[in-house]
Sequence to fold (182 residues):
Amino acid sequence: MLNTKASGPRNKPDEILEVMGLKSGQNIADIGAGGGYFSLRFAEIVGEVGKVYAADINLDFLQFIKDSAKEKGLNNIITLLVKDKLNLPEHSIDFIFMRNVTHHLSNRVEYFKNLRKYLKPEGRIVIIDYKKGKIFSFHGLFGHYVSKEKFIQEIKEAGYSLVQEFDFLLEQHFTIYVKQSE
Fold:
């Protein structure tokens, strides 16, 4: 079900991948990988030399990703079960990708400060999260959203700068950040 929604034309996955500019040989962390739709797509793009770190709190999702990768002949996906903290190789990630995840984080400023150590100096964080939506929408009723303005303020406090912003997603905001100089 998760992959069906992520791959749907309304969610514009091809456009997301195109504007990200992910290349062969790069390393990407898909935090909150869910059913792995984007992890699998990333693995095809980065090829044998690149790595995809599919991180999630749900072991069943990670097993599904492993099985799907095996079926597709992809051996460049590393699954990570996240319990208390994320465990990625430091200074090695070109992209951190988070789709519909940030609204679940309780202390986003601290969380993103901790992510800095994993990114390469020119590494980027790609954030896609729900807009508020209508009051009787799932997002509105259950608070499954973070306003773009609030998120931009929080990630700035964590030491990042907004470098790109896209408005082609109907229900989500889509922004890309880099680390500010220390």
